[in-house]
Amino acid sequence: MATSSSRNPCQFLDSPTTATHGPINTQPKIRVCNCCVSESSRDQLLKLMLDNIERINELFLNRHLYMTDESIARQQEAERRRKVRILMSIRDMQTAEQQTHMLRMLEKSFAREMDLEKKLTESRLIEEELKLRLLSSEQMFDKADVLSTEC
Q1: Are residues 41 and 32 in contact, defined by beta-carbon separation less than 8 angstroms?
Q2: Which of 1, 29, 59, 148 could form a disulfide with 14 if both were Cys (CB 3.0 to 4.6 A apart)?
Q3: In total, how many domains does the chain have?
Q4: C-alpha span between 64 and 34 (Å, rounded)
């Protein structure tokens, strides 16, 4: 009788498969070795994992069918908080160099905006001046027209 120490050192993990729709069933289990997984076992395991991920995604997309309004609100709030945490962690991960670069970019953008505002103001002043000149020219033309008709 062989003892457990004389057995193959590989410890097999049983990985149950799931049906297309529903809970775990009694289909054959995939044998996965911890130390010497064969390529076919690896492919089987990968296929099983991809199938499970697909089912999880399908359940996630259809979760609204099983949720109440209150649980949907809690879920949305949790999702909002998760996004805020991600944004905050991204902000916190920025190095001092990145922050300096960002400040320089903002400073240049602000300078360009100020320059455009100055040019816009100048353009408006030129427009007003041209309108006054046009009005003055029209008045002079009208006076000349009146004088020419009187003579």
Answers
A1: yes
A2: 29
A3: 2
A4: 38
13 and 59 assigned to the same domain: yes
Which amino acid is present at 40? S
pTM for the model: 0.34
Q: Are 11 and 34 spatial neighbours (Cβ–Cβ below 8 Å)?
A: yes
Task: Answer whether residue 84 is part of any domain.
Answer: no
In three-state form (DSSP H/G/I as H, E/B as E, the rest C), the secondary structure along 39-90 is: HHHHHHHHHHHHHHHHHHHHHHHCHHHCCCHHHHHHHHHHHHHHHHHHHHHH
Is 80 part of any domain?
no
Query: Coil, strand, or helix at residue 17?
Result: coil
> What tens digit of pLDDT does each residue of 5-62 get?
444 444 444 444 444 444 444 444 445 455 555 667 777 877 888 888 888 877 777 7
